[in-house]
TrEMBL record:
<keyword id="KW-0274">FAD</keyword>
<comment type="similarity">
    <text>Belongs to the GMC oxidoreductase family.</text>
</comment>
<keyword id="KW-0560">Oxidoreductase</keyword>
<dbReference type="InterPro" id="IPR051473">
    <property type="entry name" value="P2Ox-like"/>
</dbReference>
<protein>
    <submittedName>
        <fullName>GMC family oxidoreductase</fullName>
    </submittedName>
</protein>
<dbReference type="InterPro" id="IPR036188">
    <property type="entry name" value="FAD/NAD-bd_sf"/>
</dbReference>
<keyword id="KW-0285">Flavoprotein</keyword>
<dbReference type="Pfam" id="PF05199">
    <property type="entry name" value="GMC_oxred_C"/>
</dbReference>
<dbReference type="Pfam" id="PF00732">
    <property type="entry name" value="GMC_oxred_N"/>
</dbReference>
<feature type="domain" description="Glucose-methanol-choline oxidoreductase C-terminal">
    <location>
        <begin position="382"/>
        <end position="437"/>
    </location>
</feature>
<feature type="domain" description="Glucose-methanol-choline oxidoreductase N-terminal">
    <location>
        <begin position="171"/>
        <end position="243"/>
    </location>
</feature>
<dbReference type="InterPro" id="IPR007867">
    <property type="entry name" value="GMC_OxRtase_C"/>
</dbReference>
<dbReference type="InterPro" id="IPR000172">
    <property type="entry name" value="GMC_OxRdtase_N"/>
</dbReference>
Length: 457
């Protein structure tokens, strides 16, 4: 990559204006945003290497209690440059407004919405991903068309690696695991690092004016816990996932009414969703039912024979944060001598799934848009690989870990980026929202740390 390469092999005693821990979508997005807006010196730290290394990946092992399989956490906590984007499927949808209407988020929906266009550009999404994220269907206010737009998918290490590695003000520090944030008073003073491959080497330290955690739904709370930061805050509490229920039923949809709203030009997974206000009115969480356009049949619908889509339906849903779903210490140690993560998680979803499906099926029948094959499907739960809510955003330190800008309540110069700050997970895949929120954080840090001269236009 030439003589300008800013790969750092020995980070000892280096100082940065901003240190970012984790090089997945959130970490890379933030580093690029700050580098483009400010003259800051930025350190981007990654536990792994440019490629996957089994020894480093083993540091992501966890002790599990609950509904997630043994391979789950190593798979969904990739320790390599690019992080989870290296295995991401590319599904993108804007977060539902339901949680904002219900008051779960401490910021207005418009604060998130304004960053979706820039996030779409980073993820190579079509303009409709933010211009037309959902569409009303004539004859019903209870159901909307809300597709999942597909990123190619963008691999952040491949698309943005050259810019990161060659940038004169970004140091990419690979193969070093941050094991502790050393702090006093209300500030992080230094970062303690261990060599991820040569674990017998002595720890090294670097310092930063501001530190940002961007190491995932498990990594973010674990580093706070291992550092003894935020002991009075609900760190690690309220882990959320997206229940996925594949091919649970078939349904017929009136093609004459659907064809005007379906975005057939886009690379997308088509889906229907309960409208936000309908969810709020019925005290139900977000729920998405996907369908395909492959089979048209002539079928009686509402007493008349019409051209209908006959399609299997898979569901993606939201669960509420539960205090028993949490990340904490196990009684086992990893190769660095640290306690493994202990993950306690149960979906607690079956009753909610039946109620939400019934509401969806009734709304479908009431609207005349179509009909399901059954009102009592057999639900088999799968996970989506979306780890959210363990450092939740909020205004009350008793109920949250970070404020509306992502700053840890107890620590002036420590921020968190990624889906761990989500106070509500929605039914939409989180990467699009992660990038949007991280762009917003970059703008905030540029303004706060550098003054209005660095604010985004």
């Amino acid at each position: 990559m030439g003589h300008t390469t800013m790969l750092v092999l020995d980070p000892e005693n280096r100082h940065y204006d901003v240190a970012i821990i984790g090089s997945g979508p959130a970490g890379i997005t933030l580093a690029l945003r700050l580098a483009r807006l400010t003259p800051f010196r930025i350190g981007l730290l990654e536990s792994g290497l440019l490629e996957a290394a089994p020894t480093v990946q083993a540091l992501a092992l966890a002790q599990l209690d609950g509904d997630l399989g043994e391979a789950y956490f190593p798979m969904h906590t990739q320790r390599r440059f690019g992080g989870s984007s290296t295995i991401w499927g590319g599904f993108c949808a804007v977060l539902e407004e339901r949680a904002f209407l219900a008051g779960d988020w401490p910021i207005p929906y418009t604060e998130l919405e304004r960053w979706y266009p820039a996030a779409a550009a980073m993820l190579e999404l079509p303009d409709n991903a933010y211009r037309r994220p959902h569409a009303a269907i004539e004859g019903t206010r209870d159901i909307v068309y809300k597709p999942f737009y597909l990123s190619p998918p963008v691999r952040f290490n491949e698309k943005y690696g050259e810019e990161i590695i060659s940038h004169p003000r970004i140091d990419l520090i690979l193969g070093h695991t941050c094991t502790r944030l050393e702090h006093s008073g209300s500030r992080v003073r230094s970062l303690l690092l261990r060599d991820s491959l040569d674990m017998a080497r002595s720890p090294v330290r670097l310092t930063a004016g501001t530190t940002v955690l961007a190491c995932g739904g498990v990594g973010n709370p674990r580093l706070l816990q291992l550092s003894g930061i935020g002991r009075s805050l609900p760190v690690g509490v309220g882990l959320m996932e997206h229940p996925h229920l594949y091919a649970v039923a078939d349904m017929y949809l009136d093609w004459g009414r659907m064809q005007d709203v379906v975005d057939r030009q886009a690379n997308a997974v088509h889906a229907l969703q309960l409208a936000d206000r309908y969810c709020v009115a019925n005290d139900v969480l977000s729920f998405s039912a996907d369908f395909n356009l492959q089979q048209l049949v002539s079928e009686p619908l509402l007493g008349g024979r019409r051209e209908a889509l006959f399609t299997p339906v898979s569901l993606r849903a939201e669960i509420a944060p539960h205090p028993a779903n949490r990340v904490g210490d196990s009684d086992q140690l990893n190769a660095l001598g640290q306690p493994l993560s202990r993950i306690e998680f149960h979906f607690r979803f079956r009753e909610q799934a039946h109620r939400t499906w019934r509401l969806f099926a009734e709304a479908l029948l009431r609207s005349g848009l179509g009909r399901p094959s059954t009102l009592k499907p057999s639900f088999r739960l799968n996970s989506g690989g979306h780890l959210m809510g363990t450092t939740r955003m909020g205004s009350d330190p008793r109920q949250s870990v970070v404020d509306g800008n992502g700053r840890v309540h107890t620590t002036d110069n420590l921020y968190v980026a990624g889906s761990s700050v989500f106070p509500a997970g929605g039914a939409s895949n989180p990467t699009y929202t992660i990038v949007a929120l991280t762009l917003r954080l970059g703008d905030h840090l540029a303004t706060r740390l550098g003054g209005n001269a660095y604010a985004a236009s």
